[in-house]
Amino acid sequence: MLEERGERIHPASLQMASEVEHIDSEQGEHDLHCFQAWRRMDEILLGNFMLIHDLVAEEDYDLCIGDEAWELDYYLHENPEQKRSAYAWLTDFVGWLPMPDGGEREAFLTADYNAEMIAHIARSPRIRDRAIFVGAPEDIVPDAFGPNLPLIREWTEEHYDFSGDYITGFDPTGVANRTSLREELGYAPGERVCIVTVGGSGVGGHLLRRVIASFPEAKRLVSELRMLVVAGPRIDPQTLPRHEGMEFKAYVPDLYRHLAACDLAVVQGGLTTTMELTANNRPFLYFPLRNHFEQNFHVRHRLERYGAGRCLDFDTSTPEVIAEAIADELGKPVTYRSVDPRAAQRVAIRIAELI
Fold first, then answer.
1. Mean pLDDT of the chain, nearest integer
2. Residue 193, phi-psi category: left (phi > 0), alpha (psi -120 to 50), beta (remainder)
């Protein structure tokens, strides 16, 4: 994808340890305990930091941008003398939050992690030359970092700049003409197009199979239904069950254009895809992964602020329930809070000041 965009990929990228393989090894049935998985990947994070450490020692760079590059941010704060260039840090959530199933132990650990991060920033405020939250202050959850710790929103407002809105990577006005876009993408006027996509890890396989199982009933309810299943790089489409009238792809270039053209999308609870749908005012069903604190708290809070999407629980969503939800939501008129396409420009200006 990057090569198609004309981007240069540093050869050292091939030496980076895979985080997604670790994430896949931690998954359950539509279940990813994100915080606990993070706690068990120290070797990967440290190894990748050392790769970057050696790279910037051998080559001269003016700026390093860490887009949720947690390993870089953590170990630079632990070793501030290793900073060799201007550094911009970007994230779309702040604060580890405990899942209810984790009990008192997880509540203690997440608060401890948050306290360590707060201490890092207080001790070495010059590590981050720019800290940018991708969004607005209102997109931040109202929770505290933990007992006797600051409120997340107030602390973030003191220590971050804000893009003002989410950065989708495209201008929604460029896909505003859905009629011509659908024709260009091969969708017929009378079809009701449903796109199912679950991101880049393998944890989405269970949701894909549940939605596939719902297709015969959904098709009975909506005879014009056309469903495109995008499996992603970690799920082989050949391993998925099939029904007549469904399409399967591993990868779709410029998927956001298909999402803009569809009548409905069924997705996990990841922020990027759901905000692409929000920016394009498309109805969608989303299923946050069980025990994934970011999807269940941070992402859901933001989507509720935009009035976007319909959240469903995987455990109680049988194929029949999903089929009915698909029929109910297909093509439903929606009016979400608008997503400002100038957010990327604001961030670019702030980062460019460092060069």
1. 95
2. beta
Distance in angstroms (rounded) separating the CA atoms of residues 345 and 343: 5
| DSSP secondary structure, 142-200, as one string | S-BSSTTS-BHHHHHHHH-EE-SS---SS-GGGG--HHHHHHHHT--TT-EEEEEE--S
Residue in this structure with the two tokens 């007992």, named with its chain if needed: 147
Q: For residue range 289-324, list pLDDT tens digits in order.
A: 999 999 999 999 999 999 999 999 999 999 999 999
State the Cα–Cα distance between residues 304 and 168, nearest whole angstrom. 18
| H helix and E strand count, the chain | 14, 10
7 three-state secondary structure: coil
What span, in angstroms and rounded, lies between the C-alpha atoms of 73 and 56? 14
Tens digit of each residue's pLDDT (9 = 90 or more) over 90-131 = 999 999 999 999 999 999 999 999 999 999 999 999 999 999
Look up the pTM and report it: 0.94
Q: Burial letters for 17-45: b for 16+ Cβ neighbours within 10 Å, e otherwise?
A: eebeebbbebbeebebbbbebbeebeebb
Instruction: Tell me the per-residue pLDDT of 210-220, one tens digit each, with 9 for 90 and over.
Output: 999 999 999 99
The pLDDT value given to residue 2: 84
All domains of the chain in start order, with CATH = 11-165+343-352 (no CATH), 172-329 (3.40.50.2000)
Question: Are 4 and 253 within 8 A, CB to CB?
Answer: yes
Residue with tokens 């707060």: 118
If you search the block for the tokens 């393989």, which residue do you land on?
21
Rounded Cα distance between 351 and 89, Å, is 10
Contact 229, 212 (CB under 8 A): yes
Q: With a cut of 70, list the residues of the chain below it in pLDDT.
A: 173-176
What sign does the CA torsion over 67, 68, 72, 78 have? Answer: positive
- How far is Cα 181 from Cα 174, in angstroms, rounded to an integer? 10
At 253 the pLDDT is 86
